[in-house]
Amino acid sequence: MKIVCIGRNYTEHIAELQNEKPTDPVIFIKPDSAVLKNQHDFYIPDFSDDVHYEVEVLVKISKVGKHIDPKFAPKYYKEIGLGIDFTARDLQSKLKEKGLPWEKAKGFDDAAVVGKWIPKEKLGDVDNLNFRLERNGEVVQNANTSLMLWKIDELISYISTYFTLKTGDIIFTGTPAGVGKVYENDQLTGFLEEDEMFSVLVK
Ligand code: MG
What we know:
four-stranded antiparallel sheet, 203 residues, seven-stranded mixed sheet, binds magnesium ion
């Protein structure tokens, strides 16, 4: 199983990190060892003083595919989820400055929170889903999938141009504005519409 992540998919988040708006989706991969299963605690790693939360809508691939046309993309996923793309922002900034890959900052152990899954038929239009992240009960990120620069079906098509998508692969579709640093004892709780999808304690 691989995790394919999209960067810079929401205009306001691009602005808050002072990144340029990309002409194509930004893609990176997290290894399967990065998955923090639901309900486990997240330990801030020793190598970072600035780990950020990034709440993201997730898509679980249900069928092998390559060069998938956007109009057929809905046949390749049945479930939608929510997770966190934990990012060692200090490390990432150093790597970006040098033009080096981000993997250490994004793919470390437990850097991918994967919450529960909901059948897409239950959700209706996947391009119009509200989601939010609460930290200690306060809303810190709040968005709708309609704000994505590249929508889910376009992302599946684009990714499959480069990587064969396999059953069980997970796509992290990018984070909206509002990312921030995590602190010990933070409780991070994600909601898709009104469903609680995960709740993680930071240690
Ligand atoms: Mg992200």
